[in-house]
Structures are given as structure tokens and as C-alpha cells.
Amino acid sequence: MATSPLPPPPDTAAPDVGTQAVFENTAPAFSPLYQQIKTLILRSLQAGEWKPGDMIPSEFDLAARFRVSQGTVRKAIDELATDNLLVRRQGKGTFVATHAEAHTQYRFLRLLPDLGTLEDQGRAERQIIECRRLRAPAEVARQLALRTGDAVLQVKRVLAFGGTPAIVEELWLPGGPFKGLTLETLSDDQGPMYALFETQFGVRMVRAVEKIKAVSADEDAAALLEVSAGSPLLSVERLAFTYNDEPMELRRGLYRTDARHYRNELS
Amino acid sequence: MATSPLPPPPDTAAPDVGTQAVFENTAPAFSPLYQQIKTLILRSLQAGEWKPGDMIPSEFDLAARFRVSQGTVRKAIDELATDNLLVRRQGKGTFVATHAEAHTQYRFLRLLPDLGTLEDQGRAERQIIECRRLRAPAEVARQLALRTGDAVLQVKRVLAFGGTPAIVEELWLPGGPFKGLTLETLSDDQGPMYALFETQFGVRMVRAVEKIKAVSADEDAAALLEVSAGSPLLSVERLAFTYNDEPMELRRGLYRTDARHYRNELS
DNA sequence: CAGTGGTCTAGACCACACT
DNA sequence: GTGTGGTCTAGACCACTGC
Predict the structure, then answer these.
(1) What is the predicted pLDDT for the residue at A120?
(2) Which end of chain A is more exposed for a tag (fewer CB within 10 A), N or C?
(3) Whole-angstrom Cα distance, residue A24 to residue A166?
(4) For residue A78, which phi and psi values (nearest 5 degrees)?
(5) Which of B82, B230, B266 is facing A207, going by the closest CB pair?
(6) CA distance B129 to B222
(7) Percent of chain A having pLDDT more than 70?
(8) What letter does residue B141 receive in the DSSP assignment?
(9) Could you give the CA distance from residue A84 to residue A101 in angstroms, rounded to a whole number?
(10) Measured CA angle at A142 (ends A138, A147), to 5 deg
């Protein structure tokens, strides 16, 4: 239990765990060991020590590294797995979750066809309308935790299924982390946009919040979605976050729901 | 570890656990012990052995009853707690979840004001429009797993906040479990409808699925919601389930979203 | 104080994947 | 077979609640 074959040398640098909470120095707030371990793993994820798709060290190795029992590491990993930050695969190992895998693709897309195979009626056909670099309007800046006027990227695109347009959306991305993103980058890419963000910009979207309203189609949206102006559309405003609850994308979408619906599970 | 002070006598009746899976007699499907315990607890919940709000036996007692270790019971309860079927309270015990508590009220209602205190701007003002007993239309029957023509209850009501109507909805309930439900029962009651269902009919809603669309207000809805005909409204169709994934309520709602929005978290 | 859930450990063994 | 995650146990101790 005492050896520590990984980065932190045997008796220093590694968080030293006595019998109970370690960082209980100042605040009287009690923090369980497994929570601290969870934080340390999270930190390694943020720092990019393990990238999306990578296998992280085994529970035993991590236990040695952090000087705790395997069961404690297990509980930390369990929680990270239920948060969809890690994926466990029995017999293989534990991996950093990614949007690039078939089974987790379009994890955030809740628009489904009313009828037929929920699975897939054709891949989504994507078309980028424009990609501009500009200064953040006040409201966009506020939501992305930037200052008004900071550089941002604005992307507009249309998604269609089986030739019928279904979604028109506008994305706002902070200019810093997404430096170098162009219309060509986006257009050339196949696969989910969040997968591109991971591989090209090292940004992994972890969770998101959506605000949904019913609105009437304006002229522009009506034309792009091939409906008549004034038709009811679903307005979906999404704020997506990366590891440290940092907002990293603001997305405003209009969904056609005449033959599809937004599905949500409550529990 | 061997005593069994609860209902099942010492050496019989209680599921007998050797070293591994118990019910592994016919199917080669492997089922972990804690999963079997989870099923047994679930069965007791369905049978009404413990009712919403009740405290269930301690982990130790359950461990003795099922002849497994306390840690195994713990894992079973953990999962039931994350499914919101049970609620753990340190120092006190583990309780059957209920819709009747302040902190879990309106757990399934996702409509929030765009501005101001998310907490509450006044209680919801509810008004029952009608409550009829009739024969299930085909589509309603299908969704509630009944036969077309079976007895069902149809309830219509309006919800308002601060004097402004926000939701008009129509509920369909199976006639059997809800025998005796009348307009008076519903109107007299304060508090969430799902709480009433628990206390009066022993029906606890556990989870639900919603299908959301944008639609135009027809004359009736427009009048009730005090908007002009043709205004965009959010159509929310909810199918709610009780313990055994039995569908128990079909609800079709129209939401005004001019000053409110449907909030959803993705992860 | 006793009773409850919460944390942590150590070790044994099972199931699964790869080589 | 070896290495990984998954299950189960037994026991010790901590934290919170209420008598």
C-alpha cells in the first residue's frame, strides 16, 4: 500500500492522507477523502494529463499514487462516471469520455422523429452558413463570462434530416480557446461538432442547460427551414460548460417540430 | 450476521444467498446480489409495505433480513436513492420519497420565470375546469396500456402564476386505480396533485417522459391562456410511470412561454 | 447516550477482454 | 494467463440526529 510508482515521489508531492480528511486545515468543512480524490482526478482531466478517449491509470495505480485504498478511488471514479466524465469498461479499463464515439454522439441533441426508428433515419446533413469573428454583444458576453467587446466567433448553420431542414442555429464561442476556427474547418469536418472541439481545440463539453420556448418563425428562419413565416418553432437556447463549470458555448437554435419532437426524461 | 428478526423467519422464506447470485437457476444471465436486493426492496415499495414518507428499516436490519452484508444493502439503497425512490437522511434513516414535501414539490414541473427569483413568485393558482369519466380513446388507451373503451378519467385544469394563466392541461388517468376521483376532490385539495395521488389513491409517480413541440394556440387554448389565437405555445405531452414502469397518467399541456421557459439540464 | 447513515480499509473472489 | 473493472464481506471509525 505504501509504494507510489507514479509521478509523485514516495513521500512528498502526493497529497498526504493520514486517517481522515487532508485539507481540513482551515475550514471546518468536512470533505470526504473520495471527494478530494475526485477533485484531484478532475484536475488532471482539466490539465490534459489524460485526453478524451485515453485510458486512465487503473484503480490500483491511482490508489497507490494518492495513497488511499482502491475502494476509495473506486468511489471517486464511480461519481465521475455517473457524471459522464469517465467511462468504465469492464476488463479493459477506465477511459476519458468523448463526444467522438458512435454511442455517445449527439448526446445533447434531444430532437427525435415522431415516428419510425428512433435510432437513425439518415445521418444529419449539416451546412455551415457562416463563421464570423466579431466583438461580443453584452448578453452573449455575460453568458460566456467574458467582457462586452471581447473577441467571439459566431457560427450559423442548418441541420437537415433526409433532405428536410429541421434545425437552424447560431453558435457563439469565446475567441481565445477557439482561435483558428474557420468556416472551412467546420465544413470539412464530418462527425459531431463537439468531437471537433475536442480534437482541434482541446475543449470538452461536459454539461449544458437549455431554455426552451415556443416562438413564431421570422422571415429568415422560415426560409431556411422551408416553412411559412409565422409557423410555430421551438426556440432552444443552450449554454454548454466545460470541466470547471466554465461556460464555453452559447447556442441559439430554432427547431421544426411538425414531424419531430424534443424528448425529455423526468425523474 | 445470522439472526433475522424481521418478517422472514431465520432459515426459510428469506431469499437464501450462498456465495453468489441466487436466482441464477435457469438463465445464465448473471445478476449481482445488490441488484436482487434492489428488486426485493422495490417489491416491498410496490406492495405498500412502506408508504411514501415512511422510514424504512435500517441498513443493518435489512442486511439481516436478506442475509447479506450491510455494504450490499447499502449499494442497493444507493441506487434507489439516485433514482429518487428513496431519500437518505444522515442520522435519521432512509425514507420513501414523496411528492408531498416542500423540497420535492413540483419536481416534474420545468416551467420557470425568465426573470427574478427562480424560487417562487407566488404559489401556483390552480383551477379545475372539468373532471369526467369516459371511455378511453384508442391513442390514450395505447399509451396507458389499457384497452380502447376502458374507463378513464379526464381532467382539465388551468394553472396561473400571479394572476396570469400559464398552463392549460388535460389529464387522462386509468379508471381503476383512480376510482372515486371527482372534481370536488381535486378542487378542495391544496398542494401538488401527485401528492394527492399518493395519499388518496396510493399511486406514486416515479418517472416521466415528455414530448415537446411548438404549436399555434387554437381558440379554446387562446381564451383560457389569455393570448391571441395563433400565438405560439409549447405543447408538452407527458407520460408518467409508477413503480413497475406502469404508465399511470397521460398529460397534455399547453404552456405560455412569453415570460417563462422550459428548463432542461443535459449531461 | 444510542441509533442511523457515511467513510475507509483490506482482502477475497468473479466477470470480462486481450494476447 | 494476466490485468482490468465488478462484487461482496467484515470490521472500524466518523458525523449527524434526537432522546
Answers:
(1) 59
(2) N
(3) 53
(4) -55, -50
(5) B266
(6) 15
(7) 87
(8) H
(9) 13
(10) 70
Full pLDDT tens readout for chain B, 267 residues? 332 333 333 333 334 343 333 433 344 567 899 999 999 999 999 999 999 999 999 999 999 999 999 999 999 999 999 999 999 999 999 999 999 988 888 899 999 999 876 565 667 899 999 999 999 999 999 999 999 999 999 999 999 999 999 999 999 999 999 999 999 999 999 889 999 999 999 999 999 999 999 999 999 999 999 999 999 999 999 999 999 899 999 999 999 999 999 999 999
Q: How many residues does chain B have?
A: 267
- Amino acid in the structure at residue B246: E
Q: Do A207 and B267 touch (CB under 8 A)?
A: yes
Q: How far is Cα A143 from Cα A239, in angstroms, rounded to an integer?
A: 8
Question: What would you report as the CA-atom Rg of chain A, rounded to the nearest whole angstrom?
Answer: 22
**Minimum-distance nucleotide, CA of A74 to C1':** D5
Whether A58 sits with its Cβ under 7 A from any strand D atom: the answer reads: yes
Interchain CB contact of A1 with B (< 8 Å): no
The Cα B267–Cα B265 span in angstroms is 7
Spacing of A18 CA from D13 C1' in Å: 14
Which bases of chain C are under 7 A from a protein CB atom? 3-11, 14-18
Closest Cα to residue B172, out of B131, B210, B211, B200? B131
| Chain centroid, CA B144 distance in Å | 14
Domains and CATH numbers, chain B: 17-96 (1.10.10.10), 105-262 (3.40.1410.10)
Q: What is d(CA B20, CA A257) in angstroms, rounded to the nearest whole number?
A: 50
Q: How far apart are CA A222 and CA A168, in angstroms?
A: 10
Nearest CB partner across the interface for B265, out of A207, A231, A232: A207
pLDDT at A5 over 50: no
Distance (Å, whole) CA B204 – CA B194: 7
Q: Which residue is nearest to nucleotide C8 (CA to C1')?
A: A72
Q: Which chain B residues in 56-75 sit with Cβ < 7 A of strand D? A: 68-72, 75
Residue A38 has pLDDT above 80, yes or no: yes
Nucleotide C16's nearest residue (CA vs C1') is A91
Residue B11, Cβ neighbours under 10 Å: how many?
Answer: 10
Read off the pTM: 0.89
Nearest by CB to residue B232, choosing from A210, A232, A267, is A232
SS3 content of chain B, % helix, strand, coil (to 5): 25, 30, 45
CA distance A185 to A201: 12
Contacts across the A-B interface (CB distance below 8 Å): 100
Grid coordinates belonging to A189? 469536418
